[in-house]
Amino acid sequence: MAVPEGLLYSKEHEWVKIDGDTATVGITDYAQNSLGDIVYVELPKIGAKIEQFGNVGVIESVKAVSDLFTPISGEVLEVNGALDNDPAAVNKDPYGAGWLLKVRVGSAGDTAKLLSAADYEKIATD
Amino acid sequence: MTEQQTLKRTPLHEEHVRLGARLVPYAGFEMPVQYAGILKEHDAVRRRAGLFDLSHMGQFYLHGDAVAPWADTLTINAVETMKPLQARYNIFCNERGGAHDDTIFYRLDGRWLLVVNGANADKMWAHLNAHLPPSGVKPESRHGSAALIAIQGPQSVGILQAHVPDLDLDSMKYYFCAEARVDGVPAIIARTGYTGEDGFELFVDGESAPQIWSDLLSMHESEGLEPCGLGARDVLRLEAGMPLYGHELTEEITPVQAGQTWALKLNKPSFIGKEALAAQLERDNFSRIAGIVMSGKAPAREGYRVFCEGRDAGEIRSGSLGPSVDNKNIATALLAKEAATEGTRLEVEIRGTKHEATVVPLPFYKRQR
User: Which of A62, B25, B69, B344 is spaced 20 to 30 A from B130 at the CA atom?
Assistant: First the structure.
């Protein structure tokens, strides 16, 4: 199970990469593996204002529908449209081509409620 | 006591753990929902072969000279007309015509095997015993102790033949069976299945099952035989248009509504549910199970409402991506009669948004023979 350094993580198995005032969000390797083959991703509209840990979409595997929560608040700048035709990219490359949204960070304080790679790894291996 | 402790394990439990299966509670057992992944397993069955543990299903042996006439009073299809070693799909109904369970009867030498759904095994055991005649029928349950291994897919004959030297599998007819040895172990070998592919189901004792399972997998890995879980099985059966109890058939949804009228033998003198089913067929105004294909990429799921010309017309009963149906999202829906005709344009409400769908004939997928 991959848990890259340099990202922040939520207990709901999302990751966020902060780059200045922009954040990229996805789900972790543990999450994609738990879900199984992902067949559909529904993401928020560009411009939507999202709350930290709020429900912003769904990820569907062959068998199940799971809610997607955002680890960070802000305004949605971009969503990964390539997933419409290739949702399996979330399985294959959850930290790369399988990213989900880019967000203009709403509150710098959000990061205090997120986990480091080392702390997240403890949760995900329990 | 927690739920975990009350779950039963099949004779193949250790094999599933060793293979890294994801185990989930199903029909009172800890069952493998997937090994390598549902899509990969689905592909193995459609192109090569897959191996399934179906030991959660109820195996009831029926002994006595009155089994067939008695079973004919409890089921909609004919039992007494079955030929030796024939297998036949059959449905037990309640008085209202709703399905109590859908099953397969196997006519063996001097006894019968009745295979019932795992989730219905206790209910069906009680049902059979509540309806026993004074003499001539003795049921015996091997639910939970005996194993059932299915091998399904176009390569099934070739793979299994090496393990069954006394029987020419290629000449066994679809929905027939034989008593023979698999790797030296006495077994009932039936050319039946629930995937829409060629294949066999192997009924063996629980003690011998792990060796047969692991030998099949290790000896035929190079031919692409893969362990497959209940997740892949559900997608395979949905594509093949086969009903799943609890979805397309329930105590409320009758075999007539589920499109299983082909199995209804109204020329039998009497059986539970006959009057209700005959009347329903006669009126022909019932809601019915139809196949639908979604136009877009959002999957339809059980319970979603379906609309026809703006009016609520029914609900989704099963839904999945159909890898063998051009990767479209397929579903079954219980629909009002007027909404269920082929080609009807529908809308499925998904999280508050309506998504286009079309009624198509079942099955979604038919193998090349």
Answer: B25
